[in-house]
Amino acid sequence: MAYKMLDGNGAAVEAIKMAKVQVISAYPITPQSTIAEQLSDLVATGELKAQYVRVESEHTALSVATAAELTGVRAATATASQGLALMHEVAGMTSGCRVPIVMPVVNRGLAAPWTLWADHGDAMSERDTGWLQFYCQNVQEVFDLTVMAYRIAEDENVLTPAMVCMDGFFLSHSMQKIDIPDQEAIDEFIGPFVTKNSYLDPEDPMFVCNLTGPDDFTEMRYQQKVGFDNSIKVIEKVQKEFAQKFGRKLQIIEGYRTDDADVVLVALGSMCGTAKYVVNKLREQGKKVGLAKVTVFRPFPFRQLREVLGGKEVIGVFDRSAGLGGQGGPLWSETCAAIKDYNSDIRHYVGGLGGRDVSVRTIEKIYNELLEIKNGTRKEHTEWIDVKENAMDIRQVLKNA
Amino acid sequence: MQEQQEKLTNKPRRCRVLGPVAYEYTAANTGSWRLERPDVDFSACIKCGTCEKYCPTNVITIKKDQKKCVEIDFNYCKGCGICANECPKKCIKMVPERSEG
To answer: For chain A, is the Cβ count within 10 Å smaller at the N or the C terminus?
Structure first.
């Protein structure tokens, strides 16, 4: 065991290195670039015995990684934003062929407007492509969840690829002191890559991803659904084992001071750290508030969320993606579906888009609104919590009349 | 529909495989897409060849000297039913290919 100063990208690279991947094909994109760069450095210096394939796009990056893993080695790639959008077509191939790749996704908003900064719009657009999705609160969780993701994704009852999502810059470029276990302990925990399903072998050729008619397609999708159903138990098992071995306990849904809370906020990602700080601050003022931190978004852990939210009258849900055209964002929709039979007032908040900081003030404002709703002194909530008043007039051009 | 053909290799055990895998590209056999098959009443057939002309996949051959005078290649017949619609004697019936109907 050793402590290292790492940013989120560095922590992801450390986990990928310790998982001893043998093929890497990554295409650099802000804010993921340093993952691609550091992995290529590790291969160049010989520290990581792997083949680094320079590809011309993310579409190819994931294609190469998927095909490589089918030959029987652990393969790695990583991406963000537009790169993830470009991977979309292949993402379904990876999951449908049951290739358990673990891929860090450095969350960044999708264009337009062109942005480099964090929001969950990119990963949320991929939420139904058949990948597991884990959201990290801090840099230590980036390392821990990536390590755990290998065990979970590669489990023979799961065989589903995993995205480990970290907020761009807030996590990817923030340095923290990280506890890195010994290589032997990681080897013991993850184990060598073993092919558990279809494979590419010239000695025993077979079609993978052949044309499948209406007779079999439903069954293939159902197999994936069963994989997701199985994954919850596997995640619980792996988290427990991880806690025993490395001393850090992670939960599928973490209820932070929710037991006696009057109002609870449901949130994803790095903002959960800020939210916990606000919870503690407001508790000192005697306000009973709590946080439900969603670590696992796919599969959506509705049972665990129901437990945490049971009996809560007023619940806020914070989406860091716009959920355009929907009644609310993806986290809100899932939360509503999970507790549809509860008599709770569920309020939807959108914020933190395109890198806008989800500050202490923003979260404090939400909690105070929720408390006012609970006390009956407020009816309407501010759905777009951090939008500027001049939103509709923010750009002007000169035009000949 | 797509059968996993066992192959003589060093893997003697039949294993469960998840996802789309096959040893044979049977989906190229477009007959496997068929939901209904044409059934010809040979006693009523006048061997005019209308079905043969209209068949969009060219799988019908008229054999005037044989009792089963309409030969259909079911490997490639998709079961579109055009032959049954065009038959002037209405002696082609479309019958469900699968029991669930």
So the answer is: C
